Structure formats: C-alpha cells, structure tokens
Amino acid sequence: MPERPRDTHALDAFMKGFSATGGGSAEARVLVHQGFSVHNLRLRGQDHAQAFARCGLPAPPANNEWAGDDETLYWLGPDEWLLVCPEGMATPDFIASGAPPEPMTVNDLTGGWVMLTLSGPGARPLLERGCTIDLNPAVMGEGHCAQTLLAKSPVLLATHADPERVTLLVRRSFAEYVALWLAHTGEPCHIAFAFQARHAAGS
Amino acid sequence: MLLIECPWCGPRDESEFAYGGEADISRPIDPDALSDAEWADYLFMRSNRKGENREIWNHQHGCRRWFVVERDTVSYAIRATFPMDGEGRSP
Amino acid sequence: MSQAFRLPVGGRIRRDEPLEFTFNGRTLSGFAGDTLASALLANGCRVVGRSFKYHRPRGIMAAGAEEPNAIVQVGRGQHAEPNLKATQVELQAGLEARSVRGWPSVNFDLGRINDRLGGVLAAGFYYKTFMSSAGSWHRSERFIRRAAGLGWAPTGSDPDRYESRNAHCDVLVVGAGPAGLSAARSAALAGARVLLVDDQPELGGALLACRDTIDRMPAKDWLAAQAAFLEAQPRVRVLRRCTAFGYHDHNFLSLVQHDLTDHAVVQRLWRVRAKQVVLAQGAFERSLVFPNNDLPGVMLASAVSTYIRRYAVRPGCQLVVFTNNDSGYQAAIDWLEAGGQVEAIVDCRDDVRGDLPRTAQSMGARILTGTVVAGARGRSGLRSVEVAPAAGSGVARQKLQCDVLAMSGGWNPAVHLHSQSGGRNQWQPEPACFTPGNPVQAAVSAGACNGVFGLRECLAQGHQAGQEAARRWGFEPAFDEASEAPAMQSGALMPLWRVPEMRGRLAASKQFIDYQNDTTLSDLRLALREGFEHIEHIKRYTALGFGTDQGKMGNINGMALVAEGLGKTIPEVGTTTFRPPFTPVRFGACAGGDVGDLYEPVRKTPLHEWQVENGAPFEVVGQWLRAHYYPHEGEDLETAVCRECLATRASVGIMDASTLGKIDVSGPDAETFLERLYTHDIARMSVGRCAYGVMLGEDGMVMDDGVMARLGPERFYVTTTTGGAANVLSWMELWLQTEWPDLQVRLTSLTETWSTIALAGPNSRQVLRAMGCDVDLEPEAFPFMTTRTARLENEPVRLFRISFSGELAYEINVRSDRADFMWRRAMAAGAAFGITPYGTETMHVLRAEKGFIIVGQDTDGSVTPVDLGMNWMMSKSKDYIGRRSLARPDCVRPGRKQWVGFRSLDDRTVVREGSQLVQGDTLEPPVPLLGHVSSSYFSACLGYPIALGLLNDGKRRHGEELLAVDAGGGRTRVRVVAPVFYDPEGERQHA
C-alpha cells in the first residue's frame, strides 16, 4: 500500500508561526478552509443558462454575484465562473466524466486557491483598510462577489446575508502575504485564525 | 486615482486596471502588402490628441476584459466606457 | 513658571486636567484642550523660534495651519518629529518640544549677525553665490543646512504604526465650522451617506471662539446640538483631527488623521471616494506689511481672539489693533472683555461704521481712522508701534506703547482644495480676495472658503450646499430650514498691501511678506528690478510661498505687491499653483501598513518549506522567492553551484520550477490562435508533442519564451517565463478580445494549480522508475519533446520530457497541494543516485553552457529572434505577430547585435555581467562599444569561465579577440566563440 499523500496547505507554515489566538476578545476571526475543490468554467456562445442546465447546474449567477449553498458558483467574467465544492462532496458528473458538454471548457484549479472566511464585527472594517471597493453592506450585500485587490494581492471577495461574514478566495502563492496582511492589520482587533476541521480520513 | 467604470464589474479604482493605449488601431489584414513606412505607421504612430481620446484598458485584477474608455487627456474626465463590441456606459 | 497669561475663567480648555510639558528643556504646564502654542502663550513664551535666514526672534502669530514662525521639534529618539507648527500640536502630558532654530539658544542666537548682513543675503543670494564657483556649495552646504534647517529627522526606521483606510460616501464635507456643520446636517437629513472631516480635536471651526448666537442660543450650545445630532446618525461618519490634504482626480481625496485615542495607530491615511464634495475649510487672515512686522507680539487679530476665547489666554497687557476691515475690531472687543487694555485701534479707513467698530467704541476703545502702523519697535519683542496718517509722507508720527499688535489685512479663502481639484480662482475686488471659480469636479464651496464671511451667510450657504450635494446625488432634501444668526452690518474692507514709505530708522527696517522664508518687501522689489515678472519665477527667486506654511498668511500680499511693481492688476499676476499636500504629511502615513514584510507581496511556491528546511538562500524573481542554491556545510555560492552542476550532469539534479507561468489554451481555434502568437509551426505539433516557442512583440522583438505542449486537438498547455506570466496572459487576452473576437479560444491560468519539479541528468529516468512511474519511459516510447499523463507514487501527474540543461530531463507537473509530497518522494527515490537539489544559479549555469537565452537577462526588448540565431524556429509559411517587422530596414541591416559566446583568454577570469566589449587596448576616446556581456559564469563541467552576450555582427566575428571592460574598470581579454559550449550536437538530451 503506497503512503497516502498529505496535502499541504499554503498556510501551514503561517499557521504554525501565528501565535496570537485573540481568545474571546477577537473582533475578527479567520477560518482557513481545507479540502475543497475548485473548477474554472468557461463558456463559448451566448446561451449561458442552457449550457449550465445541460451540465446539471443551476442558472449561472449574474455579473458580480455568486450563488449556491454547499456547492457555490462565483461569477468571474462575462463567460467565466468559479465552481467551489466543499470537502467530501462528489465532483459534478460533467466534470468527473472529463468531457463537459460542448460550449463549456473546464479546468480543475484545486490546490491553486486558498479560501478564507472572515467573520465578526471587525471583518469589514479590516478589509476596508486594504480594499478600494465600497464594502458598505447596502452596496456589497448578500450574494455579491468581486475580484479586486486586497492591499497588493488580487482576491475574490464574496459577501453574505450576514454582514459580519466575508469569504475571500486567494491564489495560492499570495495566501501567505494576505494572511500576514490580515494578521498585521487585524492586530488591534485581536484577529484570530483557525483551520477548518478536516473530515476524518476515508470519510 | 481615476475611477473607471468596467463595463462588467462597475466602477473600480485605477489600480485594478492596465492601460493599453489608443483604441481602434486595427492590425493590417495583410502585413506584407504594407510598405515599410506604412507598417511603421501602424506600429509606432499614435494620434496622442489633447482632449477626447478613445483608449483601451484591461480590468487586470478583475474580470480580465479589455474595453474602450473615452477619456479627456486634459481634464481626465471619462465620458463613457464600452465593451469591445458594445454599447457605452456613462460613469 | 505659572501660567501668568491664563485667564481665570472661560475658554474650552479642561482646567481639571492639568498637563506638564517641556519646551527647550523648561518644564511648563498647560491644560487638556490646549495646543502647544496656546500653552506657550499662557506661560509667557514670547520668543519661540528664530527666523530662517536672519535668525530674528519670532513669536507665535497665528492659531492654525498658517503659522509661519512657531516651528518645533516634538518628541525624542526615533519618535521625534521635526517641522511641526506649535499651533497644530495638541498638548499632551509629558510632551517634549524644542525650537528648531536658535544657537546657542532661541533667546540668544549668534546667527542674528545675518540680520545685519541683510543686504548681502537678499533674494537670489544662494544662486548668485554658489553658481559662480563650482564646488563652493558642496563646501558650504553643511553649515548652511545647520543654520537654516527646519528640524532634525530621526535616522532610524520609524517605530510608529500607521494604517490606511478606504472610504466611500455620497457627500464629503471638509471643515466643520458653521458652513460645514450646516452642510453635513442638511445632506444627512436628505438621507445621504456623509463623511464630515475637521482638523481640530473638536468640531466647530470658527465657532469655537465665537461669541454670537445661532438660532437664539449661544453659538457653543448650537454647536453642541449639531455635533450630537451628527454623531447619532448611522449614515454619518465624523472624523476629527483629520486634515483633507489632497484633492485628486474623480473626486478622490486623501486625508490624514492623527489618532491620539487608539494607541496602536498614530496616524491614519483616509483614501476617500466621494460622490459629491462640500468644501468648507474657512479662510486665513492676512498679515499686514510694515517695518518690523515680525516682532514677537505681532499677531493675527483672529488668532488673538482665538487664544482669548478658545484657550483663555490673553497673550499680553496692552493691545494695539491694526486693521483695514471690521473683523480686526473683534480682537479689541475680546481683549477688553478679558480685562486687557486697548491702546488704540488703528484703521486705515476714513469711514468706519460697522457693528463691530460700534461695539468696540461703546466699550471705550480709541479708534484712529485714516491711520496706519508705520512701524513696530522692540528688540526681542514688541514694545511700541508708531502710527502715521494712511495718506501722506509719514511725518506726523505718534508712538503707542503696546506688547501685542493684532493685525488684520482681510481674509484669504482657503481655496487650496478647490484649486487642487482643477478649479480656477477669481479675484473679488470687494472683499479683495481670490474665491473659487466654477468647480470642475463634483464639488461646491461654501462659507468663508467661498468668500462669504458673515456667520449668518455661512450658515445659509452651508445648508444650501449640503442640500444641493445630496440632490445632485439623487436624494430629495428634507424640508428643513437653515440655522440663523443675527444680521450684522459691516463696512467694506480697504485693500492695504503696504504702508507709506517712512523716513529714518524705520525706512531701513525689514518688512516681511513671507515670514517663514524671510522674504521681505525689498526682496520682491529686487526680483522685479532684476527682471522677474512671472509669479512662479518670482516665487522661486525669492522663496515667497515656499515652506511648510506654503504662504497661507502672506502670499496674497506678495502677489499684490508684485502687481503694484509691474503696474498690473492682481488677477493678471495670478496665484502660484496650489498642490497637495495642504499641510505637511508624514511619509509614514503615506506608506501606511505597506512596510517591512508587507512592502510587497512575497509569493512562495508549494515547495518553499522544504527549501527552508534545507537551508537554501532565496532569490527574488518577480515577486517570487526562488531557492538560489543549496549550500552544504562550509560552502559558499561558488562551490555549491559547482557541486550542483557537476552532480546534475553526472547523475541527477532536482529543481523547483513551479514559478513558471502556465496557461491553458482551449477551444476549436486554439491552434489558429497560437499560430498567430508564436513563431513556430503549431499545426505540425501532434497531440502529445512539446515545442519551444518564442513570442514577439509586434515590433519583432523577443517578448517571452517557453515550452508549449499539445494536450489535445483543441487544447494546449503553454508555459511562460516566471516574470512574464501575467503579461503574457494579458497580451493573449488583448489579441483575443480586441483583434480576433471571432476565434473560439479560452485562456485559463494554471500557474498556481500546478507545481513543476524538474529532474535533470542521465539518471533522471531511473528516479522516475523508482517513483513507480506507470508509463514506458524508454526513449522510443517517450521521446524528447513529448508529454504524457502518468502516475508517480500512485498520484496523477503530467510528465514533460523537455530540457533546459541539455541533459536527459523531465518536468513533473503535480497538483500544488501534493507538490511537497512528490518532491520528498523524489528525493527519497533519488537517494540511490545521489540526487542533488539545485537552485536558480545552477539552472543559469547549465543553460548558459548550452547557450540558451533567458528573456529579460540576455534580451532587452531590442533583440529579434534572428539576432539570437533562432531562424530554425521561425515559420516561413504563416503570419505571426512581429513577423512583418523582421523585414523592416533596421532589422535586416548588417551589423546588428548578434548572440555569441565568449571565452576569457586566460581561462580563469569570470567576466562581469554588463561588461562592454571594445576593440584594442588603449581605450582612447572615442571608444566604440561593440556589444555587451549579458551572462557570465564559471563552468565547473568545462573547467573554465564562459560568457554570452550580444555583439555587433557577432556571427561573423567568431575567433576575434576583444576587450571586455566592466563598470569598475576591470579589463578581460576574451575570444568570440559560438554560443553553445557544451554538447553542441545535443545528444545528451535525446538519451
């Protein structure tokens, strides 16, 4: 039986070195997700809804929006979406088959992205320090997403019904910079980091 | 810091964009049919008008789309932005 | 010292919070709510500094950002901050402040000798003296700087913490005086998101020293009610101690906020994008120009009022007011109410009949109409003034004893932000000032900064501006009324730019226009005599309006006097350009949190941890950190690289190549698309084939290179250089989206998803086998320049059989989160072959031995593939970007620089990269430069140094001897050789 590979997370070293726990006083918490899969979906042609339906997907989210519960679709561009499935969820058939229906191009980006969820009353004010888009919940509310810059790193940012929760998707090689930035900038609000618990092996 | 209306993502800071120069410069269909002078004109010569200009910009840190910006190079006011093949959007 | 000048009651200071501080080493006391300036005045400190050039004693003149004299250094050690105005430093317990000039002390300054040499040190002194003899400036600079500086910057790094914040609002209101508060209130009532900023610790602006009533209540009660209302609004954000210092394009403003409450952050840079802006920063009072108008005790009239009413400090006993308008009378009224003695109010106007003069008169003040202050007298402070008729020769003079002179020359609206936004200003003859012209961005000016000086009018205009701003952004203003103040009658101002020429001693006395730069009336006259006419030139010749106060107090006087000298009107002379920042801003605040580790993103590969564990020093490539080499105990770069090179060529080496850009090019037209971007024939690539590709700019110059693989009929995997990854993707999208939108192609970056482990060396195949590779690795089954999907260690990977070293080599592409696992397994599997990790330096040597280029090191945007001898990979059967340019006359001219190799004749010296190549030994100018060395290393495999570079007509010069000269003057004789040093037949990579 070959040794089972251990997936390394881009923030392994950062999390080992990050001593501040924030404890109960943290106004912002960062949850570092693990084990999810990411796929880039590109469409040719105009009829996006039909193409999505052929793949068994719900209607494609409109510009600057995201949708979904466990399996989420983020709008990236006029012909581009990002499909994120949590750990333990089977890859959709149209991807697993390796042959997506015609106008669709799929690229597996798993391992290339890091996902963080920021929560707490300090979450948005913290992002305001490095993000130039208007983060007011009235402007950037439930179901909105934006590709933008956080400090000097490109990020995909998604907001929820709960204004104190923001999801950040970061390219792997920028993850440590972003984590360092969050840790430094969030110091005054006692920012805390934690890995999301992994599913038990084999489950 | 300009505020540029991406036709897909809406108004964003200039820092998310890359400038691509004058718009409407078409690549000659048959480059060999051009004299050296004509080719050099396509390569190097730009109108660089004072005032209203059509430029292309790329939303590099956003949706990665190239689009057209009508911008006044004196006041820096942006009159409208367009997808490469579409209708304008006023800021 | 007790606070002898502190009034027993009144002011907004908090008397229950006494604070101790030191000034020039003396311990003094003040109260919370004081500025350093008000506390110094309360303690009777008249002389707070020495002037820039003449070292004349100077005192506090103003109460705000326009203060030219009271420049101090605050704090000590690395926390020290030079160049602050005492009027803007909030008093804190334990504050340490020093004057920035005055040696040995401010009260006795040896530099005062300059004052006697005034004629020598006039405008243009530095130009005239130091332009005449080369080197004299360098010899003198040290002494001049010490005498003339504005403080001492700490030498270490700044220990303070800064941050920046981005903010958006519907209406930004700058200034929280009567106009700003009214604007914020009406915009908020209309429903707009409002950001109200003010540079003071408390809102109110001029209201903080105001004795009027608003809405039939004392101004301070109205102010408290407004502040409470605004604080309670969820859509209103109020920033105190916050200065708007820059108004940029598209309603983007930068503000700096001092934070004394949050001890973690000392200053905060706000970057605000506002839909609408209301400018309500008020106005600055003008000084008056007369002999010795800089003596300590000469102050702005409004500052005298502010110190009395806001800070409960009456800075003297006997007051003379010198004014050309009604507002100067306020100082006399406040002075009398504070128990002081008013010697006289000197008013240059004949006809005085406003409400304020009437009040002053009714309180017993003596008014001298049609009179001017002909000059001030005193040594280290004001003792008396002489007054004379405004019209006349100045003979009928009269002396008035006084220790404070309150002067008012009218008001300059703070048009700074309006001007920075691109707006012009217009001269208003009536209040004799520049007011904002039409706004060019979405902004409106209101109140005193719009040239409206009455309280009643400021309230009304602010209210209207707030409503208007909200309406223009789509809010329906609520039906609320402007607050009201009683109507005031005031007489017209009489412009007074200088007093009549005096005879006697006063005639020789200096009359200051710009106090901070010691620019006098005679300096301006000298500049005019010497032919300067444009105000921007005069500014630069006389230093008028430079300095940390940027001429906020005296600039208009200077322009008016220039106009008089030139026989022009003031609007014809115009103002100098207003540029950000409005007041000085710390570099630390501009840098914010982007310092240290966060200065720039540091991108790390998934194999970074292993490299750290194994002691690799890192090299920054683009934003990436790449392992440079892997030193063993006692090895330096050179020995480690020699060992890595030899081991790789002899057995097997392993390298992290994950930083290479990787792009998926998919779609029915993928082949057509790549044909147009790369020089080689794409159509001839069958599925599973790899090819080296070069991408040109449309100008024909090499832009990027890399290996591409055909994964399917409609799918390619293209790699780019590490530094070029983002540019290449953007370049591809540019052509696809703008020029060929008909092509059905989609591009996706895979750089982050796939990590690349390079195995190079004759035993690399054995290592793959030991890793349980499930595909046939024999050369016939898996030849050079092909790719296969495979399983290694039971994990799916993609293998490329390509080589950047000339050896048998493979690149393993593996999902990034499994890369660390795969690398460690490869190390284990390779142990039997002595597998040797190597870094970027060895990679460079190995490729140089083969003559392979590195784009950006060996090319510089002026090199064509023909120059590099790459004709073999340039298709003749298709068009591609840049092809036509290769036939341009300059690209086909003989003598172009071409890619060649070099060997040092002594076979020992490694030529320095960047060395220029010349012919002959003498280096007698002119020396034609024939080319340069772009890559140079010691080759351990060959046992001698090798170099590569570009040389005029290089291909035909093989065998010639040249001299390589480096920037340090080092000379090495080299022979031109072919650019491939190792295995020129290329047999090893086919093994």
CATH topology of chain B: Folate-binding fold
Largest sheet of chain B: 4 strands, antiparallel
- Assembly type: heterotrimer
Overall tally of domains of chain B = 1
Helix content of chain A: 10-25%
Q: How many whole angstroms does the radius of gyration of chain A measure?
A: 18 Å
Uncertain segments of chain A are none
Write a structural description.
The complex is a heterotrimer of chains A (about 200), B (about 90) and C (about 1000). Chain A is α+β, with helices and mostly antiparallel strands. Helices cover about 15% and strands about 30% of the residues of chain A. Chain A folds into two domains: about 10-35 and about 110-195, Gyrase A, domain 2 (2-Layer Sandwich), CATH 3.30.1360; about 35-110, Heterotetrameric sarcosine oxidase (Alpha-Beta Plaits), CATH 3.30.70. In chain A, strand 4 (about 70-75) and strand 5 form a beta hairpin. Chain A is globular, with a radius of gyration of 18 Å. Chain B is mainly beta. Chain B is globular, with a radius of gyration of 15 Å. In chain C, strand 35 and strand 36 form a beta hairpin. The chains are: A alpha+beta (about 200), B mainly beta (about 90), C alpha+beta (about 1000).
Key terms for this structure?
heterotrimer, A: 203 residues, alpha+beta, Gyrase A, domain 2, Alpha-Beta Plaits, 2 domains, six-stranded mixed sheet, five-stranded antiparallel sheet, 5 helices, C: 991 residues, seven-stranded mixed sheet, 25 helices, 49 strands, 23% helix, elongated
